[in-house]
Amino acid sequence: MAQIVRLTTHQQRSEREEAAQVAEQLSLLSDEFLKHLPGEARLAISRATYALQKAARPDTTEGLWPGGFTMLSRNQTIAIWDAIRALPSDDRPHQVRHVFDLVLVNLRQDTGEVLLTRDQLAEKVGCTSNHISRIMGTLEKMGVIRRERRKIEGMQGRGMAVYFINPHVAWNGSLDARKAQAAETRPPMQLELLHGGAS
Known about the structure:
Number of strands: 4
Order of helices and strands: HHHEHHHHEEEH
């Protein structure tokens, strides 16, 4: 039986090779040199290196981690699962857990932004979009996620709600970016006793 092979164009191969070369050049910067740079510059270099490495080896290519991976704080994650199980039945803890799990596997690289929209989450969980808003509100109160409003051109009101995972709980991206975000973010409110095991 013939084997199906993923087609990679010459341009794609060339772009991946260029990305790999630039990433390699950035990786040659010494720690001694980097420590004299402002924190924002080090973070920008880290993000650029990570983005280039990802471009050189996209998730669509078969590899050790097809589809990428998310780093978890085991203690924080277990504590969140326990806290979700302890929710009153009116809060539908099974659906809250389902949403939390979906959040963990749908994070944007280096920002921790939840990539699924409210409607997409509702479709996957099997509930209404309004109920997803309540679930996300529950996770927000627990300090598991935070919400921002993003203005959309032509859309009135405060803008679309955009959610981000607490970097003390999980991360999808470079460790330097995660440390920078974690330094500006408190651990989940109900789980501060686990701060020592969050890194």
